[in-house]
Amino acid sequence: MIEPHAPAPPRPAPPRSGPERPPARLPVRPGTGRFLVLAGVFVCAACGLVYELELVALASYLMGDSVTQASVVLSVMVFAMGIGSLGAKRLRRHAAVGFGAIEATLALVGGCSAMALYAVFAWTGAWGGLWVAGPRCLLVAFSLAIGLLIGAEVPLLMELIQRIRRQDAGGAVADLFAADYVGALVGGLAFPFLLLPLLGQLTGALLTGAVNVLAGGTLVLGLFRRDLTPRGRRLLLAANLAVLGLLAAAAAGVGAFEQAARQAVYGDGVRVALRTGVQEIVLTGGTGGRPLDLFLDGRLRVGGQDERRYHEALVRPAMTGPHARVLILGGGDGLAAREVLLHPGVERVDVVELDPAVVRLARTDPALTRLNGHVYDDRRVRVRTADAFARLRTMEPAAYDVVIADLPDPGITASTKLYSREFYDLARRALAPGGRLAVHAGPVASRPGVFWTVEATIRAAGLRTAPYRVDGRGSPFAAGPDRATGARSAPGDWGFVLAARTPPRLALDPRAARPRTLTPAALAADARAAARTRISGLPPSTLVHPRYAG
């Protein structure tokens, strides 16, 4: 029995995770020093997440299929963070200099990753399979390297915090992770809302690298400089200045680099190149007898050599029935509207385009306005800037006689909802009795599975279909890479599906101006050619279960 006034037995000392290190010799009070370390954690975490998002965004733009690219980056990076954290245990005895060296390396690798990835994409396109393999290998390499370096930060920061003031491990971890996660939140919001729209991917990544190296270098050289030898301080300062110089030089040359890379991808005839909040728009040709090409995110959407054949095949068969009221989903370039207005009896054409910059170019660019016949000067044509899916949801039933879906390829991840059963349910509701739906469904010869999945999805929405395909003359859509498939030369045909509540008949309106590229006999042959590729039994694509390969 313990006496009432006997001293309590001593508590056992908390276990140590390693050999005791002497307290850090700080130029400030421990409380201030601890705050500065947590502030450094905040900044470095924000930079790390920006690198991660920048890799995902650029890889999705260059290689398509954002789901696959995000999965590759995130899984490789998280795996590498674990390996980096284990490897950093050997550096804990030299935590300050180790952290400084890691931040300088991370700033250089992360800051230059976007430029390196874009350079490999632009200048290896002529090497066949390397068009996708080169950037994808580099993507994995950068994800691995950045993940290793980010993972190595945590043990070293924990050691630095503990050397300032010893506390229980749980409290130190809580403080460290709180600063880390809040920094990640700020970086995650800054990337899409500030860095990307204001600076772009390349300059944004370089600026992030500069912030990273300044934060890491200031923390180590300012707060823990007494833990470094004079030689160590000189080397770390030189390394930080060298990284800053390289990042600054790269930032100064971004404009020339982008121009050279763009020419490597699109050729030397680039007239307009701009990045909007939706996509990158590039116009080439259109002068000096060269055909006009319009690229959206690297995919050729309008090829002056073959666009008439494409748009006639998309629009003309849908206009054989009632067509007073026409809805065009996509088609902000005005070329589908041009074909619609060639038919007598059209009273109203509504164009729903996501990117207003495409419409501005279609109104103002001389070559593009010549190609679309100045359709936006026609009072019957009205434009609404909106997402096609959202617009269909708010539309009155039976509002249109014809609905034309001139949308990006179904193999692009961002477009899969526009080729879902739910989308076609909404399109069917928007059709008046006797109305028709025309859908661009991607190439048939190279991706029959995607084409027939579109057709099966339309049928699942309660519509009857008439699928057909047309060949492109020359090399349709081949002036640039097809990032949905990874091939430099795009497919040589287009697939379409005409749909209605009753079985539609492929024909041409005899009252309209005669098409330049189509005849009724050719349409019938095109339908037979498509039928020979039919794949039966494919399930429809839905919002929760998309079935289009990216």
UniProtKB/TrEMBL annotation:
Residues 253-501 form the PABS domain. It is a multi-pass membrane protein. Pfam families: Spermine_synth. Keywords: Cell membrane, Membrane, Polyamine biosynthesis, Spermidine biosynthesis, Transferase, Transmembrane, Transmembrane helix. It catalyses: S-adenosyl 3-(methylsulfanyl)propylamine + putrescine = S-methyl-5'-thioadenosine + spermidine + H(+). The active site is at D406. Its EC number is 2.5.1.16. Pathway: Amine and polyamine biosynthesis; spermidine biosynthesis; spermidine from putrescine: step 1/1. The keyword 4Fe-4S does not apply. It comes from the Bacteria. Gene3D superfamilies: Vaccinia Virus protein VP39 (3.40.50.150). It is an enzyme of class 2 (transferase). S-methyl-5'-thioadenosine binds at Q279, E353, D387, A388. It is found in: Cell membrane. The keyword Plastid does not apply. InterPro entries: MFS_trans_sf, PABS, PABS_CS, SAM-dependent_MTases_sf, Spermi_synthase. The chain crosses the membrane at residues 35-61, 67-88, 100-126, 138-161, 173-196, 202-224, 236-257. Spermidine binds at H311, D333. Residues 1-25 are annotated as: Disordered. Residues 1-17 have a biased composition (Pro residues). Its main location: membrane. Homodimer or homotetramer. PANTHER family: THERMOSPERMINE SYNTHASE ACAULIS5. Catalyzes the irreversible transfer of a propylamine group from the amino donor S-adenosylmethioninamine (decarboxy-AdoMet) to putrescine (1,4-diaminobutane) to yield spermidine. This is Polyamine aminopropyltransferase. It comes from Streptomyces similanensis.
